[in-house]
Specification:
The complex is a heterodimer of chains A (about 270) and B (about 260). By secondary structure, chain A is of the alpha/beta class. In chain A, about 40% of the residues lie in helices and about 25% in strands. Chain A is built from nine helices and nine strands. Chain A has a six-stranded mixed sheet, sandwiched between helices. The longest helix of chain A has about 35 residues. The model of chain A has no long low-confidence stretch (mean pLDDT about 85). Chain B has one domain. The model of chain B has no long low-confidence stretch (mean pLDDT about 90). The longest helix of chain B has 30 residues. Chain B is globular. With about 260 residues, chain B is mostly helical. The chains are: A alpha/beta (about 270), B mainly alpha (about 260). Chains A and B meet through α1 and α4 of A and α1, α4 and α10 of B.
């Protein structure tokens, strides 16, 4: 494939599928581990679960895309594959630029050491070098509004403080592509406002954004485009309003159907008695 | 150094020092604890084998400690690192970073503990009339390199397989602590092993020649030359096996944990 096609691509999926095997919750990655598992492999029939089914998707540089869909539809799996945490079972993934996955705030924070030390380590974990991390550390600390608590062990933090620091680190590691999984609503209203502004700022700087959320309001607010995932497939794609409306309408219709069904059952029971 | 290598190096540094810091945090004796354990173990073994069983070995206490400190680096690294990936599932599932830094930070941390114990050994050596000389400057890095490579290869192999086969944690614990320890001349010098077994021990057990090598350096001021050959061969084999298995398996860690 000529490279100029992907010149303005931040992330592209080409027929990406991801299968998990449920009964074992394990995959044989090579012959040796299979041999080690031989008894279990023989006794346990594996049940494959298709988390992503032939998904193709292209996200341009600077674009902001929201991924919505019901629980278990493959949204988080998509982000994990984009972040390079797990490989796809089949298909091709193209990622240009530094991808930072914000799948959980404060992953790797250790309660026994100070916020400052944790922030430094976390920044390097998320993609900076130590020199770069030291450079942005003052900004991170400033943004987190932790004040003197920054030099206290993190076990003394409230959960709000914990997430504030996690968020501050994540948005300061200078990503080119930022993947966010349901971590926007942290801290009090004021801090949330600040986070939102910061994300808007990143967008205007040309950072590509991929947002997974159940908060349907934030999709039109942050995204140029939305993708609906259902049972591992893309079932709708378009402007955020359009996709969210379509999705909500279907959810409502489904609920209405369930209510109707229940009422019908009830009246049938009433007739029977 | 490219960016990825630089970051791996930085992570290794940060994780190693975090572990060091955590180990001594909130303890009154701090760093002394890393000396107390091997010294106490040494004292107990000394009493048992020198006073009760009465091994006929000159300066048994020094012979013992010269091997015991290096063995502790090996032993602790293996037993702690086998779970490095399995016990960091939360992190591995959420963040992409070079995974090998997890076990290597532990190896490095225990290597530092070992390095910190050398001054204690020097004091004891001087007290018994052994004087270090320039050979240490070659002998120590040489042995550290061979033993370090061996440990890194083994832990990469163990930690990778342990993600899929958790029994390895228990197997390692039992095998290293109860079998490998006694098959290595740590509590006894190689010289008291029946001669017909000595060569086999040196060929089949890489730690045998390494521990004897440490004794050559510390007690004889001798650089172990070709006697380390079997250990070097083992170290290279394990390094190759370890990095190969790790590369093959690491992609699946996030899904398996």
């Amino acid at each position: 494939m000529p490279s100029d096609i992907h010149a303005d691509t931040a992330i592209a999926f080409e027929s990406v599928s991801k299968h998990y095997s449920l009964s074992l919750q394990k995959e044989a990655t090579d012959v040796k581990s299979m041999l080690l598992h031989l008894p279990r492999f023989l006794s346990n029939a594996r049940r494959p679960f298709v988390a992503l089914d032939n998904v193709s998707l292209r996200i341009k540089r600077g674009e902001s895309v929201g991924i919505v869909g019901p629980n278990g539809s493959g949204k988080s799996t998509t982000l994990r594959i984009m972040a390079g945490i797990a490989p796809p079972t089949s298909g091709k993934v193209i990622a240009n630029g530094r991808v930072v996955g914000l799948l959980e705030l404060g992953s790797g924070f250790h309660p026994q050491i100070t916020g400052r030390e944790n922030a430094l380590l976390n920044a390097v974990l998320l993609g900076l070098t130590l020199a770069e991390a030291r450079e942005v550390l003052p900004e991170i600390i400033e943004f987190s509004q932790l004040g003197q608590f920054i030099d206290q062990p993190m076990r003394t933090y409230s959960s709000g403080m914990f997430f504030r620091l996690g968020f501050s680190v994540a948005v300061h590691v200078k990503p080119e592509v930022l993947l966010i999984d349901e971590v926007l609503a942290v801290g009090d209203a004021q801090f949330q406002e600040k986070c939102m502004n910061h994300i808007h700022g990143l967008r205007s700087q040309g950072v590509t954004l991929v947002l997974v959320t159940h908060d349907m309001l934030s999709v039109p607010k942050f995204c140029d485009r939305a993708v609906l995932l259902e049972q591992g497939r893309i079932t709708d794609e378009g402007t955020p309003q359009q996709v969210v409306h379509g999705y909500l309408a279907r959810v409502e219709a489904l609920l209405a159907l369930q209510v109707e069904e229940r009422q019908r059952l009830k009246s049938a029971q009433a007739v029977a008695t | 150094m490219n960016r990825q290598a630089r970051r791996a190096y930085d992570l290794l540094y940060l994780l190693t020092f975090r572990e060091l810091k955590l180990r001594y945090q909130d303890t009154f004796f701090g760093y002394l604890w890393s000396l107390v354990r091997p010294l106490l173990q040494g004292a107990v073994l000394y009493v048992v084998f020198s006073k009760i069983i009465r091994l006929d070995v000159e300066d048994y206490g020094l012979v013992l400690l010269a091997g015991l400190f290096a063995w502790t680096w090996f032993h602790t690294s293996l037993t702690l690192c086998v779970g490095s990936f399995a016990s960091n599932g939360a992190l591995i599932k959420k963040v992409y970073f070079p995974r090998f830094v997890l076990p290597f930070a532990t190896v490095l941390n225990n290597g530092i503990q070992f390095a910190l114990s050398i001054p204690v050994l020097i004091i004891l050596l001087l007290w018994r009339g052994y004087v270090p000389d320039w050979t240490w400057l070659i002998g120590i890095p040489y042995l550290v390199a061979v033993q370090g490579l061996l440990i890194m290869g083994i832990v990469l192999l163990l930690a990778s397989f342990n993600v899929y086969f958790r029994d390895l944690e228990h197997l390692t614990d039992v095998f290293v602590g109860l079998i490998w320890f006694y098959l290595t001349p740590v509590i006894y010098p190689l010289s008291i092993v029946p001669e017909r077994y000595q060569d086999w021990l040196l060929i089949l057990n890489p730690m045998a020649s390494i521990i004897e090598g440490w004794r050559d350096v510390f007690l004889q001021n001798q650089i172990p030359g070709l006697s380390l050959l079997p250990a070097i061969v083992f170290a290279i084999i394990f390094a190759a096996l370890g990095s190969f298995s790790f590369r093959q398996m690491q992609g699946g860690f996030a899904d398996a944990l």
